[in-house]
């Protein structure tokens, strides 16, 4: 979503409806029962946990556990490096590189 944002005046961003419609979204109705149960279990386990602010996402253990649960349920490789890279983006870390 961040890559598809519209810059605005000041510290805000905007998302246009046609852009949002084109974004790929997981269709949970296509998941197997085991996958849905696995994701539901992860949700139940993590729902009350507090996420750290975006600039601290690289070291956030809750975000890491969410990513691991999604990767496990969907049979994806470890993508934690993406969270680390995303945390370095100026719009996320609130720093100019």
Strand content: under 5%
Percent of residues in helical segments?
40-55%
Numbering strands along the chain, what is their spatial order in the largest sheet? 1-2
> Ranges with pLDDT <50 over ≥5 residues?
none
Tally of helical segments: 5
The tally of beta strands, per DSSP, is: 2
The count of domains is 1
Short description:
The chain is mainly alpha-helical and 97 residues long. The chain has helices at 17-22, 33-46, 61-74, 80-87, 90-93, and strands at residues 6-7, 13-14.
Descriptive overview:
Helices cover 47% and strands 4% of the residues. The chain has 97 residues and is mainly alpha-helical. The protein has one domain. A hairpin with a 5-residue loop joins strand 1 (6-7) and strand 2. Helix 2 packs antiparallel against helix 3.
Layout of secondary structure:
Elements: E1 6-7, E2 13-14, H1 17-22, H2 33-46, H3 61-74, H4 80-87, H5 90-93
Antiparallel strand pairs: 1-2
Helix pairs in contact: 2-3
Which labels suit this protein?
single chain, 97 residues, mainly alpha, 5 helices, 2 strands, globular
